[in-house]
User: What shape does this take?
Amino acid sequence: MAVYTDVSDEALRAFLSQYDLGAPLSFKGIAEGVENSNFLLRTDTGNYILTLYEKRVNEAELPFFINLMGHLARAGLACPQPVRNRAGTALGRLCGRPAAIVTFLDGVSLSRPNAGHCRALGAALAGLHAAGRDFPMRRDNNLSVGAWRPLFVQAEAQADTVAPGLAERTRADLDVLEASWPVGLPSGVIHADLFTDNVFFIGDTLSGLIDFYFACTDAFAYDLAISLNAWCFDPDGTFHRDKAGAMIAGYDAVRRLEPAEVAALPILARGAAMRFMLTRLVDWLNVPAGALVQPKNPLEYDRRLAFHRAAKDARDYGWVG
Ligand SMILES: Nc1ncnc2c1ncn2[C@@H]1O[C@H](COP(=O)(O)OP(=O)(O)OP(=O)(O)O)[C@@H](O)[C@H]1O
Ligand SMILES: N[C@@H](CCO)C(=O)O
Assistant: This one.
């Protein structure tokens, strides 16, 4: 459970007194997520999510995320709406942390999405890219290829305690990725963390996208590569080509992929797997004392990297266009 910071009743009451949300009826830590402290807040005006921003979130970047959610919601995307306090601001401080309240979205995330869900995700991702086109703010991706070697260095000495040979193969992959990372692909606002736990469905209909705290300006096809990794493999590394093909086709039906993006898919997918393997590895080796959090297994992404190393072109990912 990701609750790094405890919020006392008094602190919550003082914080809520700045808003017109009515009286709190219940307030509970949420048993998912690894990044921030999240609480479900019910008041007599509705349900909300209260987030205290923790470790990886840079406070100076919070206006990007908050304004982006507002922009996307206004453009018709089903995503959380930041709630403003009486002073007109959506960002405050609670227990020494930056904090915000956003609207609650109905729906459930799927642990085992099928190809139909993957197609819907692809279409929604392309919709997000289109909705973000006229967003005026920019945020560089601070977890792109230039950040991977420094992350690895933090974990290198202990990597082989997690899996034999992990340090060696990661070094070799980093050499390849740094030498061949694509530049100049169509870019704009990307979500950059669109895993199954950040997408809600009601029945088989995609009902909402959450967790925009890694959103940044980067290649659209890299976002697709992140979701291919997250949605189309089993934890043991088994790849589901039908799901990947459906996701790519769902995306392409809404925003036509350019030939350069199709050609870059294998290296983008390999880089995406590296990004999540590395952040997971660093977290795995550095769980904060006393935090209620279950770190995610880096080896799930080490196994995906084995698939990407062997992939020849986008057809290996189910692309048939
Ligand atoms: N707007 C929302 N509406 C409904 N539920 C939400 C909303 N925002 C967050 N949640 C719930 O809180 C959980 C954690 O939220 P979130 O994914 O933003 O946390 P995180 O710590 O950033 O996690 P992650 O590990 O995915 O980065 C979600 O899985 C979901 O159950
Ligand atoms: N979605 C990420 C956690 C948040 O960055 C992972 O599964 O590693």
